[in-house]
Structure formats: structure tokens, C-alpha cells
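Appendix C reproduces, verbatim, an entry submitted by the partner laboratory led by Prof. M.T., so that reviewers can inspect both the input and the predicted structure.
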Amino acid sequence: MRRRWAGGGRGLRRRGFGYTGQMGVDSDPEGQQTSVMSLRAGLALSGMTDEQLWFSYVGVGGTLGQRSLVAALNGELVMSAHEHNVVAQALNDHFTERGQNHPVAYAGELDLGLESEARGSE
């Protein structure tokens, strides 16, 4: 029986363990750090809990489990540009629903080295 990784694994890999998702992942640690910092700043600015973000993330099509999403936001899992964009969309929806701007940058707006993957997944 083939074991599935709890978060589905799409677009993620566990640091140091070689799990890879179906999509390519960024091998640039600085790009991953930029992604995580951008999403964590958006989360802090939103005032949402990790659980509230996860519900919003799933609502816009996210496929990671809650623990996997939190691990990715803590830099423990490598996140693809596609997954970054889904989390950014969930956060930006929170802001626009409150009549605010969308402050969280999408992968193509950050220097992640993943612009071609991000464009292909939109």
C-alpha cells in the first residue's frame, strides 16, 4: 500500500528528507525565506489565526492539511510558487473583504526564482 503524505505533498518537500511534490520546488533558500517572510507578514497584519488562514486557504482551492500549511509558514517545508499564490490569495481575500488593499505579494511579484512556474500555474 502506498502511503500518502498527510498534507498531500503537492508542491512541497520536507527539508532534508527529499520528499518532492508533483510541481517543481525552489532550491534557492533565499527565495523560500522571502516567500515565508511575505506570507507570515501578511498573516500577522491580518490578525487571522493559523486555523482561520487554513480555512480560507482551503476555500480558495488549497490542498495542504493544516499542519502542513503551518509547517510551510514556519519554513519547515519548501513551498512552490503555486502554493505561495494560493496562500497569498486567501490572505488578500481577507483584506479585500474588509475594503482594504491586497498587501500580500504573489510569487511573480517576489524575487523567488519561480516566476516561470508561477505563471504556468495561474
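The chain has five helices and two strands. Additional entries are available on request from the coordinating office.
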